[in-house]
Amino acid sequence: MSTGELSAEAAAYFEEKHINSLLEELFHDVVLHLPDDPLQFLLHALDRKTTLRLLLLGPSSCGKRTQSRRIAQKYGVVIINADDVFREEISRKTESGEKLASCMQEGLPMPSDIASELIIRRLQEEDSRSRGWVLNGFPRTRSEALRLQAAGISPILFILLDVSSEVAVRRCDGRRYDPLTQNVYHMEFAPPPREMAVERMFEDDGSLAAVTSQWKYFDARKEELIGCYEPVFVRIDGDRPVDVVSQEIFEQVESRYVAV
């Protein structure tokens, strides 16, 4: 959208309030759904923006879990971690869970149809719809993003935490996963609370080789994901300290969607 005819004051307002991004997102939703009544569709879409729906993606060791917790604490949204959803399905010993377990054991990507169905089901639960959500680690491919869109699930903000492979590998050393709280800590950068029993934790995500492989997998697919969510996309440098990254995330949320 051109702002060539606008006054300097109006142009500054458009930039500060991200009006262009908002209009592009609405246009994207209309083209995607082709509603019979575009006006009612747009009114409903604007009303839905009062609930925060945030995609938080990035390669392994970029800090997704840490930032998800901080977003949830600040805005009261539900954290939906894709890996936790998959682990829960595996623990139920369902047919889908058995397929997921087999893929995990063999180091293969999760089947897109099963993974998407589980995530969509979780996003449609009452707490997610009423409180809003931050979805961590999904979608991982363009086909999964399209499945979410086909189900009518669209974020109002897509944040990519970009980290270099060197930083990802360095952060891998010292990471610990707590099976009780399902939180991930780092013994140096984000240590667990002092009162927490460190001995119950175990190293997260295996070897440095696994982290490097996961980083390459994500890096090869991130541009196609960005293309699916271009109107609401924001890239944030995840190489920086945790508090600095958190502050930029909060600024992006609050400058674009004051209602949350």
Automatic annotation (TrEMBL):
EC number: 2.7.4.3
Membrane-spanning intervals of the chain: none
UniProt keyword Transferase, yes or no: yes
Keywords: Kinase, Nucleotide-binding, Transferase
This protein's record includes keyword Kinase: yes
Domain of life: Eukaryota
Protein's UniProt name: Adenylate kinase
UniProt organism field: Trypanosoma rangeli
